[in-house]
User: Fold this.
Amino acid sequence: MADQGKALGVVFSNEIFDSPSAKNLTVGKPLPVTSGGTGNTTGAATINANLTGPITSVGNATSVASQTGTGSKFVMDTSPTLVTPNIGVASGVATVFNTNSATSGTTLSAANIVGGSSSVDLQMTGTLGGDANAQMPLATALIAAITNYAVGSSYRLRITNASSANHVWTVTTNTGWTLNGMMTIAQNTWREFVVVIASSTTATLTSVATGTYS
Assistant:
């Protein structure tokens, strides 16, 4: 029986057994492959190779390197369908309030009109000496000021004329902008716009609502 074991290429740790499948083998270690036929050579065979990557294994035991939640399905990264997911708390600020104290025509800074993921309120607080223009910043400056911007994303921008003098602000364009609708803002009124990032260098500003401020 010992000779039969050698012919199978299995070593039984100094024991002779009737059936190799009934005894312990060292899993994962190379075994000599031998045969008595002409032309056969001696090599090595590996019983198993452990998995690496997101799913790992040691012997017959497998595990997932990173996992959360319970269930019997893995979620892939393209169009998954989730059941009662816990999304968590979104990072960032939804709404911000900014001010600009200009008393005559000015070019708004990118910081004046960004900062909130869903809406930005800009209050023009300076006392105007006459009607004046509030020019938009360069579209590229706006886009550069938005963290992780996405083409097609949008937010609301409300500009309020809080001047103590009865004069009008008019929003005017700059390079990379397309303006749609009314752009004038009378004293003690606000006008709301939708800002859309149209491309990596362009944006649109569309007037959608107006109201009084007191």
